[in-house]
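#struct-help
A.M.: can someone run this one for me? Single chain, 131 residues.
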Amino acid sequence: DVTEIEEKEAQAKQEEQIMKEQELSNLLHEKRYLKALGLAISLDRPHTVLTVVKAILKEPEGRRHLEENIVRLRKDQKEAVLAFLVTWNTNSRNCHEAQAVVETLLKHEAPDSLLQFSGIKSAVESLLPYT
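D.P.: on it. Structure tokens below:
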């Protein structure tokens, strides 16, 4: 009978998820945005990533801070943010944040580098009608 083992594994995963959620909350409160972005991306939480982006933009010199944080993300994290912002851009409440991230990516990534992103073609096709 493996039911007990599976239940323990599920409980351990749930506890780990709760710990990460608490850590994310603490990072946002401490304004440690780069770590918060990385954690939200690793948890695959587009809305939380959007919340972090909005928090950064509310800071004095928010655009500069956003650029600093986005530039420091790994390539796979940038790809995830690109996928998230395609959805954000379709909503008028979130389009400004999406456009700020797009601007940062276009400004700091070489065109050849952007072409290497997975899903870049569909992302651009989705962004064009709303941009």
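A.M.: thanks! Residues 2-128 form one domain.
D.P.: also worth noting: The mean pLDDT is 91.
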